Amino acid sequence: MSKRNLVLIIILIASFFIRIQRLDYPLSDIFWWGDGSRDYLVANHILKYQEFPKLGPYNLFYESGLRNSTLYFYILALLLIPFNHPVTITFFNILFQIAVLVLIYLISRKIFDSETALAAVALYSFSSGVIEQSDYIWQPYM
Fold first, then answer.
1. Is residue 1 very low, low, confident or very high in pLDDT (cuts 50, 70, 90)?
2. Rounded distance, CA 11 to CA 101, Å?
3. Is the per-residue pLDDT at 29 higher than 60?
4. What is the pLDDT of residue 62?
5. What does the alpha-carbon distance between residue 15 and residue 13 come to, in Å, rounded to a whole number?
6. In 21-55, which ranges are continuous DSSP H helix?
7. For residue range 45-69, what is the model confidence (pLDDT) as tens digits?
């Protein structure tokens, strides 16, 4: 294993542990009073009652006729199949963020070189705004 791959793995593991410690359900006020709780409840309802919504989540342009797709709720319901709990969705959100870090590395390495790709992954991975997005599920974060 090369030194660059080892550094990438260390960055990914550190990123995972930084994000996983933010799973503070049910202590998080952000989770229970935000859109994440609504999204979980809709996805949970899809699984329990097999009733499928016809409209996606609300957005700023809703009154203008631009509505979000219901596909978001259906994907969340699929994520809840193995274990129906609010933390499940947040855990998948963290896994998706780690997958994005790998994509950033691969794309940056293809365009530039390995050192630039590692720098890009490190900068993005440890950015406070990106880390905050792992707190709870929200459609723009997905």
1. confident
2. 9
3. no
4. 74
5. 5
6. 29-33, 35-49
7. 999 999 999 888 877 777 777 778 8
Amino acid letter for position 111: I
d(C-alpha 98, C-alpha 16), whole Å: 7
Assigned token pair, 98: 């780690």
pLDDT above 90 as % of the chain? 48
> How buried is 67 (Cβ within 10 angstroms: 0-12 exposed, 13-18 middle, 19+ buried)?
middle
User: Do you know the residue count of the chain?
Assistant: 142
Structure tokens at 52: 């499928």
Whole-angstrom CA distances from 55 to 13, 38, 52, 76 are: 38, 13, 9, 15
End-to-end CA distance of the chain: 32
3-state secondary structure at position 127: coil
76 is written with which tokens? 């969340």
Peptide bond into 82 cis (omega under 30): no
- Tell me whether residue 74 is exposed, middle or buried, using C-beta atoms within 10 angstroms of its C-beta: 0 to 12, 13 to 18, 19 or more: middle
